[in-house]
Design brief:
By secondary structure, the chain is of the alpha+beta class. The chain has six helices and seven strands, in the order E-H-H-E-E-H-H-E-H-E-H-E-E. About 35% of the residues lie in helices and about 30% in strands. Coenzyme A (COA) binds next to strand 4, helix 5, strand 5 and helix 6.
């Protein structure tokens, strides 16, 4: 499988939405939310394509230290996005279930790390909220460590705030 990582464009939103609905069954983002995130910070919104189709994506914004305990506290990313902030916040990373466990999610994260460190060299670290199942697996493998549990992050599941530090 040949993989290409590219910046997302408006033309990709329908394919992203298709994957979003398939993998995020409880609270999928809608089309307008995805478009808003793309317009907010296009440098932090990447897609993965194989030879035939879009199979994964990662969305992010830039923030300052921002105490929060629930998704509701931060869901208006346009209110906390600050290009001069010190922290890249990964909003979501998703891979089409048919192509999971093939390295696509890790490639998206590592490409984002590289692009951000080139374009925004003042950024010192990455934050994200992981679902429990990915804390000691996917994110540990990608050099994130645990900051603290967020038991009330979503009505339906808890989260764990995790961090990666740029060298
Ligand atoms: C999380 C996700 C993006 C990982 O993408 P991926 O392309 O499958 O990941 P990679 O192939 O780069 O890495 C695979 C690693 O992820 C972890 N992983 C994959 N699926 C997992 C699962 N269902 N449960 C727990 N860990 C899992 C494992 O550590 C695995 O490593 P291993 O093969 O050495 O055991 C993908 O599983 C996904 O889209 N999940 C649903 C969407 C989601 O919940 N995203 C937000 C996560 S907080």
């Amino acid at each position: 499988m040949t993989l290409n990582i590219r910046f997302a464009t408006h033309e990709n939103i329908s394919d992203i939405l298709r994957i979003e609905h398939a993998i995020e069954k409880v609270y999928p983002a809608d089309r307008q939310t995805l478009l808003d995130r793309l317009e907010l910070f296009p440098d932090g919104f990447l897609i993965a394509n194989n030879d035939h189709q879009l199979i994964g994506y990662i969305e992010s914004c830039i923030v300052n230290e921002h105490p929060f305990s629930t998704y509701n506290d931060i869901r208006q990313f346009s209110n906390i996005h600050d290009p001069n902030g010190m922290i890249l916040f990964i909003i979501f990373v998703g891979v089409d279930a048919r192509f999971q466990n093939l390295g696509v999610g890790s490639l998206l994260i590592n490409t984002l790390k590289n692009r951000i460190s080139q374009l925004y060299s003042h950024i010192q670290k990455i934050h994200l909220v992981s679902k429990e199942q990915y804390v000691d697996t996917f994110y540990r493998k990608n050099k994130f460590f645990t900051i603290k549990p967020l038991p009330d992050y979503m009505p339906s599941y808890s989260g764990v705030l995790m961090e990666y530090q740029f060298e």
